[in-house]
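Key result, reporting period 2: structure in, sequence out.
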């Protein structure tokens, strides 16, 4: 027995050291990755607004105000004030949360899986999910949200109410989606007590329960009330750049959103997890559901994101894979739990699932099919290629302002790399002399037709499956 205690203590110490070491390695290899996708807005623009004005000036200019609390921008500003307004500092902000995600996910795994070796393999199956692992190499609010969600969940599972309260407190203020996760966790809490712990409704909604959720929701409630009183709107206003995106979905768009939602859960190798779960339910049926812990994982995978799902299904705005990361984690762990309990040939099946997720990062769709580039590690070479392409333009004395490009590169250079360069690319009109194109941009069919017909390739930069092309307008 003493030897087992020593082994457990030693493992915990080594585990924590490894998490720190792994987090630092990720920081070292990714600290030059520029702002990417929506994070140009949530990290850079909102952060710059606070940095150059006031850290407490949460009234974002209308031209780029998405309505969300500028929580990430707030953290970035604090670090920029201390270490300087640099790109690597933005990645430094992510480092403690990345390490925290490792720690919380392992604790999450340890509650559902017994045995150190099995816990390690289960943990690996979670963190290699392409959508989650991609967040570790870019500056984004998702890592922060995932950390506080699993801090909340682990506080609940291991009966540490202080951690649960802290997690909920921050979920209520990071973003509107983290607020939805707050609501989703509340549903799970109620379901777990009502149907799994068999408690009566009266005993669930007691003073302590209501007080905890009320107090932890105060930051979010205060923010929402403040915005409504001072701005008069939450998500969009008539002149908002996103006003056309946030409308009630028509039946046709609603059906399209369902297909898109299913795709998000199957994309980037997760189809193998899904097929395994369906096959397992078909073979073992009620045996799987009889397990309380399996039932908890299944319910959590749904309730945690139920409000996010409802929001995206009934709106016209596009939605990303990263919205459902906590659900992916629950389903991946459920798959491992089922594999561990009911299957022979565990190593072969685990290898199949592992390779399925890893190789999900190699999924590159034809250029006419939009892809969630901020949810796959396949996009990573773009960051260094972008720098090469910009240097090429400088060397050839081509002004940045004369070069057209597309989202997410249609911003000031400083908004992406904090280089201090205030030059900005131009919006593509089809008549621009030069075009900066990368296959990580999702263009319309019409834009591709114009490029193919009216432009010729002047220079191409490629690495792995990612390429950047400088186009020049053909002479008539």
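The corresponding designed sequence is given below.
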């Amino acid at each position: 027995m003493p030897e087992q205690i020593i082994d457990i203590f030693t493992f915990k110490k080594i585990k924590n050291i490894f998490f720190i070491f792994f987090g630092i390695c990720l920081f070292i290899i990714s600290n030059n990755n520029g702002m990417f996708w929506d994070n140009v807005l949530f990290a850079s623009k909102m952060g710059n607004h606070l940095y150059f004005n006031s850290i407490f000036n949460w009234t974002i200019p209308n031209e780029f105000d998405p309505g969300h609390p500028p929580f990430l921008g707030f953290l970035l500003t604090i670090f920029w004030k201390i270490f300087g307004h640099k790109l690597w500092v933005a990645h430094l902000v992510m480092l403690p949360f990345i390490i925290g995600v490792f720690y919380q996910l392992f604790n999450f795994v340890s509650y559902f899986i017994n045995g150190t070796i099995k816990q390690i393999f289960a943990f690996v199956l979670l963190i290699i999910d392409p959508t989650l692992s991609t967040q570790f190499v870019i500056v984004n609010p998702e890592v922060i949200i995932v950390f506080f969600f699993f801090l909340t969940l682990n506080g609940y599972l291991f009966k540490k109410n202080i951690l649960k309260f802290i997690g909920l407190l921050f979920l209520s203020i990071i973003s509107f989606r983290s607020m939805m996760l707050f609501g989703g966790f509340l549903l799970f809490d109620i379901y777990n007590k009502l149907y799994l712990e068999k408690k009566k409704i009266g005993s669930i909604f007691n003073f302590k329960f209501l007080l905890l959720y009320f107090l932890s929701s105060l930051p979010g409630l205060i923010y929402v009330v403040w915005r409504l009183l001072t701005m008069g709107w939450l998500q969009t206003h008539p002149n908002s750049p996103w006003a056309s995106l946030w409308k009630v979905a028509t039946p046709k768009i609603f059906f399209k959103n369902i297909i898109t939602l299913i795709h998000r859960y199957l994309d980037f190798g997760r189809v193998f997890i899904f097929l395994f779960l369906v096959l397992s339910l078909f073979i073992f049926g009620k045996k799987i559901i009889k397990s309380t812990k399996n039932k908890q994982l299944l319910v959590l995978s749904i309730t945690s994101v139920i409000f996010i799902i409802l929001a995206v299904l009934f709106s016209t705005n596009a939605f990303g894979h990263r919205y459902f990361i906590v659900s992916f984690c629950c389903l991946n762990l459920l798959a491992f739990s089922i594999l561990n309990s009911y299957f022979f040939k565990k190593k072969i099946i685990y290898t199949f699932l592992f390779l399925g997720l890893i190789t999900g990062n190699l999924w590159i769709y034809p250029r006419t099919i939009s892809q969630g580039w901020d949810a796959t590690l396949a996009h990573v070479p773009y960051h260094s290629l972008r720098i090469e392409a910009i240097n090429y333009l400088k060397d050839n004395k081509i002004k940045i302002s004369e070069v057209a490009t597309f989202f997410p590169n249609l911003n000031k250079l400083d908004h992406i790399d904090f280089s201090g360069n205030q030059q900005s690319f131009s919006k593509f009109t089809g008549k621009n002399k030069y075009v900066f194109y990368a296959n990580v941009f999702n263009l319309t069919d019409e834009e591709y037709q114009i490029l193919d017909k009216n432009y010729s390739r002047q220079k191409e930069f490629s690495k792995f499956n990612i390429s950047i092309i400088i186009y020049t307008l053909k002479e008539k």
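Residues 155 and 163 are 5 Å apart (CA to CA). The radius of gyration is 24 Å. This case is discussed further under Risks and Mitigation.
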